[in-house]
Amino acid sequence: MKFKIACLQMDIAFGNPEKNYHAASRMIDMASSQKPDIVVLPELWTTGYDLANLDGTADEGAQEAKVFFHEAALKHQTHFIGGSVANKTEAGIENTMLIFDKEGEFAGKYSKLHLFRLMDEHLYLAAGKDKGLFSLDGHKFAGLICYDIRFPEWVRAHALQDVEALFIVAEWPIQRLEHWRALLIARAIENQCFVIACNRAGADPNNTFAGHSMVIGPWGDVIAEGGEGEEILFAEIDLDQVKEARSKIPIFTDRRPELY
Ligand SMILES: O=C(O)CCC(=O)C(=O)O
Q1: Which parts of 90-172 are beta strand (E)?
Q2: What is the CA radius of gyration of the chain?
Q3: pTM, rounded to two decimals
Q4: Whose CA is closest to atom 5 on ligand 1?
Q5: How many domains does the chain divide into?
Q6: Which residue is catalytic, options 7, 112, 121, 198?
Q7: In degrees rounded to 5, what are phi and psi of residue 211?
Q8: What is the ipTM of this complex?
């Protein structure tokens, strides 16, 4: 099965959800002219990394974002991997990805599991406990958020559940662009699956972000890659390539988990 993907490599206004909702709506309208099957947004796209003010700007139960994606999915008949939003829960503020299918139905959520100390996430955010697995059109996928790609054992746990594509949303800083590219390509090769990674563009008071959203095939081939600025990255993926790669080099059969 083929899917046409649109990654919204947004610039994000710092601590300004209203402005970011307008910007996202405008980009979704633009992307829709190409009739994508799946639209992907970046990490914390409503607030950016304005962590110190999340008490005032976080979305209670992610309700506003849920309504937004429900309506956008119905309007454009497109699946949404809704980046992530600051989600006020009983456990604290989580960094939560929402997935909506093209009928406007809630299809899953994932709250970031590994908090990134270098950007003070552990001081302001609560770590999630979700698995992040979901299905769209009968295919199994997983959601990951930014720093998660440094944990190959977490990604492998998804691959062992027959996931065919990993959707990664991020606010990855420019100074580690080469880590971003290398880690994404490695995760695709070692798990023999597609990697669809949507990063933000632009800067906030503390960081400049890398852009370079990427769509990578199960052989590690870079199908599409963005530049540094705001843009919409389009790519088509063919999930049949996952079966081909896994049957040609059967690493899932050849693993020796009893020894490691
Ligand atoms: O791991 C990195 O270098 C960047 C991670 C990051 O920016 C994040 O998780 O928000």
Answers
A1: 92-100, 106-111, 133-136, 139-145, 165-170
A2: 17
A3: 0.97
A4: 147
A5: 1
A6: 112
A7: 60, -130
A8: 0.96
Among 172, 177, 207, the mutation site with the greatest number of ligand 1 atoms within 8 A of its Cβ is 172
Average pLDDT taken over every residue of the chain: 97
Q: Domain residues for 246?
A: 2-259
pLDDT digits (tens, 9 = 90+) for 134-158: 999 999 999 999 999 999 999 999 9
Specify the pLDDT at position 159: 97
Mean pLDDT computed over 84-111: 98
Of 67, 54, 71, residue with least CA distance to 16: 54
List the CATH number of the domain containing 159. 3.60.110.10
146 is catalytic: yes
For the segment 70-77, the average pLDDT, to the nearest whole number, is 98
Query: For this structure, is 190 an active site residue?
Result: no
Catalytic hit among 7, 66, 121, 146: 146
Nearest C-alpha neighbor of 149 from the set 186, 192, 118, 121: 186
